Amino acid sequence: SQKIEQNSEALNIQEGKTATLTCNYTNYSPAYLQWYRQDPGRGPVFLLLIRENEKEKRKERLKVTFDTTLKQSLFHITASQPADSATYLCALDNQGGKLIFGQGTELSVKP
Amino acid sequence: DGGITQSPKYLFRKEGQNVTLSCEQNLNHDAMYWYRQDPGQGLRLIYYSQIVNDFQKGDIAEGYSVSREKKESFPLTVTSAQKNPTAFYLCASDGGGGGQPQHFGDGTRLSIL
Q1: What is the C-alpha to C-alpha distance for residues B33 and B10, in angstroms, rounded to an integer?
Q2: Residue B60 distance to chain A (closest CA, Å)
């Protein structure tokens, strides 16, 4: 069956360190993969999109990798700040417009 | 500023009652989506619409209904047939066709009285 999994446990890191979040999937062949940030009681906010033929994408302190052989995406936040604390969601896009979301990983950055 | 507006922010439903959640966008997007989010879970797709006057069922459509009479509006009705309606409901839109970021509203939290 099709499955998408993110780290189920919350990730706690110290300010200034790099946070790395994982998104694994099985039985999909997504054309794109997207990452979103969600704060409590708010809707998700789009962060980055990476295509299946791209290995890596960067935006300011954010970096996403996409390995279609391993069926895995890694999301990195460098020089993390307490303001980065939120839940991060990955989503697979099969080109039909419908997204399939993981359950999210809660990140907590301590000062 | 363009965006998506969901209302109300909080909604309470009595047993046997239908309730309607509003979603309006001024982004000129063709596609709109309704998701349900339960604690500790990802977003699950209820219904989506890629063009006016057309919509398709998502993964958990039972007990819900939608309409898409205008490009800007995609209301969701939670019917009395939905036996476990307590959840956070999110509306989103994008330009359609895949490979597009989705823009989300700030959700409606529905509870049962």
Answers
A1: 19
A2: 13
